Amino acid sequence: MSDNRGRGTGENSGSAPYDFGGAWQPSEIEIARRIARKKRNRKNGFIAAFSSLLVLGTLLVVLVTSPGWITLRDTFFKWAYGFEVLPKIILGFGTNATLTLIAGTSVALLGLLIALIRTSRSPALTPFRFLATIYVDVFRGIPMLLVILLVGFGIPALQLKGVTNNVLILGTIAVIITYSAYVAEVIRSGILTVHPSQRAAARSLGLSHIQTLRHVVLPQALKRVTPPLLNDLVALIKDTGLISILGVTDAIRAAQIQTAKSFNYTPYVMAALVFLAVTIPLTRMTDRMLRNSLERQNAQGQA
Amino acid sequence: MNESGMSAPVLRVEKLRKSFGDEIVLQDITFSVPEHTATVFIGASGSGKSTLLRCINLLEQVDDGVIKLDGADISAADVNPDEVRKKLGMVFQAFNLFPHMTVLENIILAPTKVQGIGQEEAIAEAFKLLERFGLRDKADQYPDRLSGGQQQRVAIIRSLARHPRLLLLDEITSALDPVLVNEVLSTVRELKGEGMTMVLATHEMGFAKQVANEVCFLHHGKILEWGPPEELLESPKLSETREFIRRVHEAGRL
After folding, report:
1. For chain B, what is the total number of helices (H) and then of strands (E)?
2. Residue-by-residue DSSP string for B53-106
3. Pick from B28, B220, B231: which is nearest to A13 by CB?
4. Is the ipTM of this complex over 0.85?
5. Containing domain of residue B151, as a range?
6. Across all residues in chain A, what is the average pLDDT?
7. A5 and B2: CB-CB below 8 Å?
8. How many A×B Cβ pairs under 8 Å?
9. CATH number of the structural domain spanning residue A220
10. Cα–Cα distance between A169 and A106 in angstroms, integer?
11. Residue B78 placed within a domain
């Protein structure tokens, strides 16, 4: 098929129209193009490696040659001592992890409930909508530390019968109260971004309001807000440390106790590493899950 | 080859090949589009029409072959796709208007941000185009508020505002109901009358007959048969082409 101006059929080209099995050899133009692309990729890789080496190397040199480096290294990066206290910090982190699991689950449920109430249109739910709005306004606006202090010291002060004085439980409740307000707003914004036509399509298939939410709106909404929700989860893991102010021994408190004994700050660095060891894999995992689900859903090819 | 005496074609595709994994989508595709002409690709869904247009617009990387725009190889490895796309207009089956912008903002986005034309000048030009295609009163509306036909005409105007050298139209009426199809097609006919060079993929045989200078029948990724619209559509030589045209007839789309 040299040129198709005029009239013709593919049968002139000599090969049968359905001949797709034959071995295909890239043309010289394509081979040259591939070589050029490979060359460009190699060049880009070289530039990336060079600039990384330059920037990181400079930072390292600045750090190591600074006058206080030796002192800093001995007070913050005394690894032998760090590993000695690591078990205690990990034990303390158990509190953070448990708290995250309990608070995370509760926050997810409570946040979802509040988001659903706030986006509902049923007239019967009007008072709840009103209360949910006030709840979000109030607890999103108060610093979490204050909520922890108010709940942790305020509720025992009421001396109510049957109400716990356990600071761990009270601290967890304070965290749940605050985070639910944030998460509710994230989920609500996700629900609002689902196009009305999706709801119309679901309702016209005969799905009830609840079924529409459950099978059509929420799956899309939650997928969209997964990155900010993960953001909140990572923040939650870290903020569970705040209840140490009530006297709970978590990873931060455990590190603080060790630091007070030795006047060496390495336990803090170890505690930071323990947090990172959990949060970084979590972030990567969710990133990958999200990417895979988008790839499956969207048409192939991108600009 | 009846280009003697004419300038080089606006678009020239030679032995183009494209596959997704093991699936060969396009093979041995060769054709030219001289200036002020329209080449129409017909063929069943999945025959590779859309992929071909996406290859020309450099949205897909070809496996082999050459694509030339005004004689310059745009499939070369060192080509900057952004520079190429400045000369191309593309209209999609699903309109792909930006839902968060008004009609006017959709139209002036590329002229102001890519071509560096002043806001006022771009707006004046946009209004001129909107006026011409009877959409002046929709300028401040958001796309979601318009009918499908109006949205598609806005999408056409959006690509026209950049003064493309070549317009690629990818089944632009497939998502529209028959009444709205006409308003979009008459817009395209008008562009053709003004000498716009175009490559189209379509299922509208009647329309193909009206605007095409050449029709190519794409079948399983190959151009099986080609020729002037009257000849190809009325007396196809190959049984595959006949079969396809007969099926389209049956669907009542002629």
Report:
1. 9, 10
2. HHHHTTSS--SEEEEEETTEESSSTT--HHHHHTTEEEE-TT----TTS-HHHH
3. B28
4. no
5. 98-164
6. 87
7. yes
8. 84
9. 1.10.3720.10
10. 13
11. no
- With beta carbons under 8 A apart, name residues in chain A contacting B146: none
Strand B198-201 to B166-170 pairing: parallel
* Residue A259 C-alpha, separation from nearest chain B C-alpha, in angstroms: 54
Structure tokens at A262: 């030795």
- A214: which DSSP letter? I
Q: Which of A246, A247, A249 is nearest to A93 (CA)?
A: A249
**Does B2 contact A6 at a Cβ distance shorter than 8 Å?**
yes
CB–CB contact B220 A20 (8 Å):
yes
Element (H, E) at A8: strand A8-9
- Give the whole-angstrom CA distance, residue B201 versus residue B165: 18
Distance CA A249, CA A255 (A): 9
- The parent domain of residue A111 ranges over 93-250
Q: Detail the DSSP E strand segments found in B109-213.
A: 166-170, 198-201
Inter-chain CB proximity A1 and B30 less than 8 Å: yes
**The pLDDT of residue A48 is above 90:** yes
- Is residue A74 domain-resident? no
- Band of pLDDT at residue A87, cut at 50, 70 and 90: very high
Is position A40 within any domain? no
What are the pLDDT digits (tens) for B171-211?
Answer: 998 888 888 888 889 999 999 999 999 999 988 888 888 89
Q: What is the pLDDT of residue B253?
A: 54
Minimum CA–CA partner of B64 in chain A: A30
pLDDT greater than 50 at residue B135: yes
Which is it for the CA torsion B203, B209, B215, B219, positive or negative? positive
State the best of B61, B224, B241 to mutate against chain A, taking most chain A CBs within 10 Å: B224
Helix (H, G, I), strand (E, B) or coil at B130: helix
Question: What total of structural domains would you count in chain A?
Answer: 1
* Cβ-based neighbours of B202, under 8 Å, separated by 6 or more: B40, B41, B42, B169, B171, B172, B173, B208
Which amino acid is residue A215, in one-letter code? H
- Closest residue in B to A197 (Cα–Cα): B144
